[in-house]
Structure prediction request, 568 residues.
Amino acid sequence: MSPAAAPEPDASPPPARATMAEGLSALTAWHAAWVVATGLSAIAGGLLGWIGGATLFGAALIVLPGLTGLALLKRDGTGERSLVLVVWTLAALAAAMLSGGLSGPLVGYVIMPFVAALALGGPRHGVRLAQAGAVGAGLAALGGQLSALFVGPPESQPMAASISVILAMVAAVLAVRLSWRLRERKLNAAETMTLRVETLLAAQPGLTLVMEPNGKVLAAYGSPPPALDPEALFESGLIAAVHAPDRQLILTAIDRALAGQEGQVQFAPRIALDRRVNLIVRRMEDGEAGPRVIAQAFDATRQFATEIGLEAARAEAEARDSGKTRFLANMSHELRTPLNAVLGFSDIMRQRIFGPLPQKYADYADSIHEAGGHLLDLINDVLDVSKIEAERYELSRETFDAREIVSAAVALVRVTANDKGVFLSSLVPEQALPVDADKRALKQITLNLLSNAIKFTPSGGSVTLTLEVIGPYLELVVSDTGIGIAARDLKRLGRPFEQAGAVEQKVQGTGLGLSLVRALSELHGGRMSLESTLGEGTAVTVRMPVAVAVRAPNPEGGAEVIPFNAGG
Prediction:
């Protein structure tokens, strides 16, 4: 259970590089020892008369591969080692042919290409060099026998033959030992690295699973969530450990992972439905075994409980807000009914329908009617805002000329503007502006914007209304030369009961005017924007996609036909 990825050849970990360096040092030492041993044996054989002539020359040639092997210290690789093996084969072939082959005094050197291949192969170059060495030894033996066949059998030189066999045997023992030790050290290094990877995987906070596409678990590492038992996963697979309604989610996540995407899902374990587990699934290539799936499972119970708590809190807050909105709507309705009676009776007293009144009482009647009208406007605004927030406000859309509604609103506030000494002007085009909108809403938007502008513009200032159609949009702009709005207050305005400015300015309104304008424009699919400079004035723009395209009338007598002259 250790599916660790193998490192790339050029990215070996430090233990592997140390093993390779140590192996190279031992290999060159083996070649150096061969040079010394064969060189001394050739010199001693020549001085003592054991060998001579061509045999002595062959004994000298067998030293050459050892010297060639020393060059591996400078440059090492598969190609360089193969070249050294070729030198071993040629030297063994020459020695066998010069000494009479398998019956000659240098018979022990015939097998040296295979022995050298064992030493050169090591843990990296292995089987192929050993096979090439065996072929080289066979060529040396065949060449020696052919030489003996054509030249004749060599003289018997048992001492030289014994020395060559002993040297070859010692070299073979050392080569096998060298190759085995390097393989053993590489195996130990690999096992150590595997153990480190497994330890790292086992210490991770979640559970990592290696699975087949059908959910069968092949390996598991790490700390499993409380509701997942690794042993049960090995026996029954992941799908069986998942609550039945969530199994399709797991299969969908696995399919996404096999398609090259990341699959992420949250499920309830079958043995603990009150818990939750987050699963992240990705595709993993496993060589000849084909595509597999690697998954990470984390305990998500705390996160799930937090989300449930937040959802419950949100639902409770929405319920309270909805209750508040319904309460305001109901209370506004209940207050408006008796207030209309107060306004009606005060108006009767103002008009003296039932006879004259003392002047003092007449002034009281005027004050009652004025205060009642202001209170009724406030209640109407609260009622409209409450309906909009409760999503109970329904637009009554119809096609009409926007100029008529806007001009009527301008006429309603003109008296107030004149009384305050504010110059009110309106820029309305001469041609009709047909729109598909709610008449009452458009009038309310215009009245609120004009009332706000006049209210916060000092005597001698001006308020300008501009109305035009730009493409599918009806654009209404109300600008003034009033006190302006500070930049820090612009973002707040447009929300219910939000006001800007000093205390003496805030007492002039309720903070519902712009909020109602914004809400009504958004109900039409539009938006409201504010631009203001403190001490210079404010411009409020409302854009709504309510303009109706007007088709031009057909010309009398039909369309004009223009003849086409092909000749120009």
Q: What stands out?
A: The mean pLDDT is 79. The first helix runs from residue 14 to 48. Residues 27 and 321 are 85 Å apart (CA to CA).
